[in-house]
């Protein structure tokens, strides 16, 4: 990563600036990447006003600050970092982040579509739960589609997690999303969570959804000591709400991580290019290779080969319609 590379290039200065203690003068002055191999790595579980809560591989917590050369936006929840200094985690101690491992994935969103500034929100997730209530608040397919697009773009496997099945039936949403090949799990306050636990096991799963859909309620059932604050839906706009305001990673009892993100009202995807969605539809991309150059494959696109594939039965109409609906999520 360029950012880390740049930081490393000028690390010599940092070595002698001594954030937390004076550096030994004998340290070799080198422009080479310093040898961090003996330093511990940790995962970032939350970020709060410049303080980074991390956990070491043995599960013990450490609080860290950024080394001088690590960019302010360069460390996000889910990152794996190298720590220097005091990693005892003892009260009042601070460790220092000196390196950020290359990210396997980055989930981004734009605050809204007028805002082209992309905000990386979570690093290294390999699965994304789109948590959607079947009622209260009612499901919005537009929002589900946009989060799906963000997942496809980030190459993170989406799962549609439908909550509040005690209030409404999941049939309609199942019918809309099964043709996309997106796995669907359904829950309610009494539901058996075996299938959801199996889906989460040993993976890093980010939970995204509208405020009030029941993310915290589900997290608390899956991780009893998570103590995520929950709120009555009617209180969602009220003052003094103590529910989450930034992402937080929590380890599952049987292995794997959940990264819960604050409830959102909208999910901006202005940073995503349409072409990146095709990657999530490998069965369509072979046909799209035959399209005229610059084809956006939208409904009515001139000579779009996807229409030909449907016309001669090589591709199902339903599947093409699903893909095109993803394209319209941009509109
Ligand atoms: N009927 C029903 N209510 C639920 C269910 N899950 C959660 N709730 C209720 O929905 C409300 C909101 O739940 P939360 O878990 O706080 O929602 P959240 O998604 O964490 O909300 P944010 O903190 O804004 O992200 C609470 O009153 C929950 O008791 C469910 O499966 N069925
Ligand atoms: Zn096309």
From TrEMBL:
<keyword id="KW-0862">Zinc</keyword>
<protein>
    <recommendedName>
        <fullName>Small ribosomal subunit biogenesis GTPase RsgA</fullName>
        <ecNumber>3.6.1.-</ecNumber>
    </recommendedName>
</protein>
<dbReference type="GO" id="GO:0005525">
    <property type="term" value="F:GTP binding"/>
</dbReference>
<comment type="similarity">
    <text>Belongs to the TRAFAC class YlqF/YawG GTPase family. RsgA subfamily.</text>
</comment>
<feature type="binding site">
    <location>
        <position position="295"/>
    </location>
    <ligand>
        <name>Zn(2+)</name>
    </ligand>
</feature>
<feature type="binding site">
    <location>
        <position position="304"/>
    </location>
    <ligand>
        <name>Zn(2+)</name>
    </ligand>
</feature>
<feature type="binding site">
    <location>
        <begin position="209"/>
        <end position="217"/>
    </location>
    <ligand>
        <name>GTP</name>
    </ligand>
</feature>
<dbReference type="GO" id="GO:0046872">
    <property type="term" value="F:metal ion binding"/>
</dbReference>
<keyword id="KW-0342">GTP-binding</keyword>
<feature type="domain" description="EngC GTPase">
    <location>
        <begin position="123"/>
        <end position="265"/>
    </location>
</feature>
<dbReference type="GO" id="GO:0003924">
    <property type="term" value="F:GTPase activity"/>
</dbReference>
<keyword id="KW-0699">rRNA-binding</keyword>
<comment type="subunit">
    <text>Monomer. Associates with 30S ribosomal subunit, binds 16S rRNA.</text>
</comment>
<dbReference type="InterPro" id="IPR004881">
    <property type="entry name" value="Ribosome_biogen_GTPase_RsgA"/>
</dbReference>
<feature type="binding site">
    <location>
        <position position="297"/>
    </location>
    <ligand>
        <name>Zn(2+)</name>
    </ligand>
</feature>
<keyword id="KW-0690">Ribosome biogenesis</keyword>
<keyword id="KW-0694">RNA-binding</keyword>
<feature type="compositionally biased region" description="Basic and acidic residues">
    <location>
        <begin position="9"/>
        <end position="21"/>
    </location>
</feature>
<feature type="binding site">
    <location>
        <begin position="163"/>
        <end position="166"/>
    </location>
    <ligand>
        <name>GTP</name>
    </ligand>
</feature>
<keyword id="KW-0479">Metal-binding</keyword>
<dbReference type="InterPro" id="IPR030378">
    <property type="entry name" value="G_CP_dom"/>
</dbReference>
<dbReference type="GO" id="GO:0042274">
    <property type="term" value="P:ribosomal small subunit biogenesis"/>
</dbReference>
<keyword id="KW-0378">Hydrolase</keyword>
<dbReference type="GO" id="GO:0019843">
    <property type="term" value="F:rRNA binding"/>
</dbReference>
<dbReference type="GO" id="GO:0005737">
    <property type="term" value="C:cytoplasm"/>
</dbReference>
<comment type="function">
    <text>One of several proteins that assist in the late maturation steps of the functional core of the 30S ribosomal subunit. Helps release RbfA from mature subunits. May play a role in the assembly of ribosomal proteins into the subunit. Circularly permuted GTPase that catalyzes slow GTP hydrolysis, GTPase activity is stimulated by the 30S ribosomal subunit.</text>
</comment>
<dbReference type="Pfam" id="PF03193">
    <property type="entry name" value="RsgA_GTPase"/>
</dbReference>
<keyword id="KW-0547">Nucleotide-binding</keyword>
<feature type="domain" description="CP-type G">
    <location>
        <begin position="114"/>
        <end position="267"/>
    </location>
</feature>
<keyword id="KW-0963">Cytoplasm</keyword>
<dbReference type="InterPro" id="IPR027417">
    <property type="entry name" value="P-loop_NTPase"/>
</dbReference>
<feature type="region of interest" description="Disordered">
    <location>
        <begin position="1"/>
        <end position="38"/>
    </location>
</feature>
<dbReference type="InterPro" id="IPR010914">
    <property type="entry name" value="RsgA_GTPase_dom"/>
</dbReference>
<feature type="binding site">
    <location>
        <position position="291"/>
    </location>
    <ligand>
        <name>Zn(2+)</name>
    </ligand>
</feature>
């Amino acid at each position: 990563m360029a950012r880390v590379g740049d930081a490393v290039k000028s690390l010599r200065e940092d070595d002698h600036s001594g954030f937390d203690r004076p550096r030994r003068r004998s340290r070799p002055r080198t422009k080479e990447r310093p040898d961090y191999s003996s330093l511990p790595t940790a995962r970032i579980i939350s970020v709060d006003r410049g303080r980074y809560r991390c956990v070491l591989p043995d599960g013990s917590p450490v609080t860290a600050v950024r080394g001088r050369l690590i960019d302010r936006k360069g460390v996000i929840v889910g990152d794996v970092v190298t720590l220097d200094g005091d990693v005892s985690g003892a009260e009042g101690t601070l460790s220092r982040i000196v390196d950020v491992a290359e990210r396997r994935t980055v989930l981004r969103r734009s605050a809204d579509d007028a805002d082209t500034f992309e905000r990386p929100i979570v690093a290294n997730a390999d699965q994304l739960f789109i948590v959607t209530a079947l009622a209260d608040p009612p499901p919005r397919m537009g929002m589900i589609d946009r989060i799906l697009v963000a997942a496809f773009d980030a190459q993170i496997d989406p799962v549609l997690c439908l909550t509040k099945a005690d209030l409404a039936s999941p049939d309609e949403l199942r019918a809309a999303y099964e043709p996309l090949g997106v796995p669907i799990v359904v829950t309610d306050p009494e539901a058996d969570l075996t299938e959801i636990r199996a889906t989460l096991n040993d993976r890093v799963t980010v939970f995204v959804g509208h405020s009030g859909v029941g993310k915290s309620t589900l997290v608390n059932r899956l991780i009893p000591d998570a103590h995520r604050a929950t709120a009555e839906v009617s209180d969602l706009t009220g003052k003094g709400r103590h529910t989450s305001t930034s992402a937080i990673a929590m380890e599952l009892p049987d292995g794997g991580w959940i990264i819960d993100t604050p409830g959102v009202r909208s999910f901006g995807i202005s940073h995503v290019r349409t072409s990146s969605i095709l990657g999530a539809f490998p069965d369509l991309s072979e046909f799209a290779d035959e399209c005229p150059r610059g084809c956006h494959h939208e409904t009515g696109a001139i000579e779009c080969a996807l229409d030909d594939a449907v016309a001669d039965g090589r591709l199902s109409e339903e599947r093409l319609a699903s893909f095109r609906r993803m394209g319209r999520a941009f509109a």
